[in-house]
Structure formats: C-alpha cells, structure tokens
Amino acid sequence: RNDAKSLDFRKNWRRRRKRLYLEAWREFRLKRRFCRMVLSDANLRLDRYRLAPKFYKLHQFMIESRAAETMQRCLRGLFGRNKAGFRRDFIFRVMQFQALYRRLAQRPPPE
To answer: Which residues, in sequence order, are CB contacts of 69 under 8 Å at separation 6+?
Structure first.
C-alpha cells in the first residue's frame, strides 16, 4: 500500500468536491439571473398567450433553483465547518499556551 498515493488521491478528491460545489453555485447564480429576467419580461406582458413556453421555462428554473439552493446550503455549511474547525483548533492552541505560561510563571525560581 502506497500511503503517499492514497494521501494524494484524498487531497485531489477534496479539491474536486469543492470545485463541483463551486460550479453548481455558479450555475445557480446564472439561472437565478435568467429567471429574474424572464420574470420581469413576463410581468410586462402577462396578457399574451404566446409567452406560455416562457412560463414553462420559468417553472423549470424555479424547480432547479430550489435544488441549487440546497447545494448552496451544503456549500456554506462545508465552508462554515472548515472555518469553525480552524477557529476551534486555534483557540485550543492558545489555551494550551496560556496554561503552559501560567505553569511556568507559578513555578518557584531556581535556588
């Protein structure tokens, strides 16, 4: 078993997963923008029946944007967990250093 290879694979897998999340988020933003454009266009011409395909597209985009919203929540959760883990680790290290400093400060001086 090659540990270096498996470690490299895990790193690449993490990067790929983040990249996929970011691509999904970018696609969601574009679709949301297009959805807004279609909606404003439809609001201007609600009385015309020839816009029925646009309403169907709007409905599809709304369904897809709901799925993308869930992806966005997952992505934000992932970044939030990473940040929280870093902060927790940082605070733990600071507490360790403070405890060490207190122990050294309370030690009697050498005779």
So the answer is: 28
